[in-house]
């Protein structure tokens, strides 16, 4: 029996402290709901759960990103739906103008509505936005930088790089230089009267008509016949088609040899333009050796396997080298994953009237309605292709949202098994350590009374 060192009390006190520490940890788990509250609780589990928490947060944010992407696509598609409606209305008007019973005044009235529709298409293309980001002006498509070309468009299959070609010959207009010197001294006299047709539009040259009157009649006919005249006074008079390329035509017919001789031309003649001619550089640029081109006036389209397509409009009269720097700047990258590189790229082409090549639709000219039908058909194809891509993007994003949500759910369950406390088990542990703490306290009280027994030996 010892007084200085109460060994039973020390042993009991140590057990009491252990029980209180275990009880405190159990109460902390019950209060927080987590099995791991400190790194010391489970070092490897803490590291794993930390990475999983970051992954889950990233997945949840990516899911919201994908949902925002769906909203962007729906906004763009809604605007394109209106553009489609307007182009279809233009098609209807062009069909009406192409009808033989439609007079010139009727065509002019139709053209006024077409012009209004073109303005609205351009407004939609430049003002459709999502979170201040313009969607339909081409800023979300592959960007091409080059001199001497305009209206450049690239399909999403065109990769970034330097593409080179040479325009060997610029597109040409149909052109005819007459032998007719037209000025204020010009006058139609007896024997010189007759008619001249410019692309089917007839001008009647009457006795007594003078220079400016003759020029006005010819100018108005040429405008309807898709041509222009050289400036007045014209010495000699030159007639030029407004269009470029092999479809540009000037057909001139005279009613008699006298009038034909007056103009210094045969009784009937036909003049056509020429398309641009191009050489693709597949050796020193990113073009493959399978790349081919087609031209429509000064519009040049280069295609290759796999949906590759670049189109542009060469500047009038330009021939020479063209270097196109295609960048990966422009398309919208939607971060739809929790990790680097897990994104989806969205391409939306420009849909203004210039890039749709319907900015010059004019049904008041002799062949304007027929040409309008072709141009409008091509524009509809561009819009339909863009909307098809948007539909594919939206379906993919919806699948991404479902996949991300399910992955997040499964990872949350996995992390829960590592870091979440089992409340039933912890309550059992709490009861156990609570009872042990009470019993240790009682035992310590008894152990502290043992030295009192030593006093009985001294009595």
- C-alpha Rg (nearest Å): 42 Å
Average predicted local confidence, pLDDT: 91
* Terminal CA distance: 15 Å
Spatially, the strands of the biggest sheet line up as 3-17-5-13
Biggest sheet character:
4 strands, antiparallel
Q: What structural class should be given to the helix and strand makeup?
A: alpha+beta
Give your account of this protein's structure.
- With 459 residues, the protein is α+β, with helices and mostly antiparallel strands.
- It contains seven helices and 19 strands.
- The protein has helices spanning 7-32, 43-98, 104-127, 211-224, 257-263, 368-419, 423-458, and strands spanning 129-130, 133-134, 144-145, 149-154, 161-169, 173-177, 194-198, 201-205, 227-229, 238-244, 249-254, 268-272, 277-281, 292-296, 299-303, 309-314, 320-326, 332-335, 343-346.
- The protein has a four-stranded antiparallel sheet, with no helix packed on it. It has a four-stranded antiparallel sheet with strand order 4-16-15-14, with no helix packed on it.
- A hairpin with a 2-residue loop joins strand 14 and strand 15.
- Helix 2 (43-98) runs antiparallel to helix 6.
- The chain is rod-shaped and about 165 Å long.
- The mean pLDDT is 91.
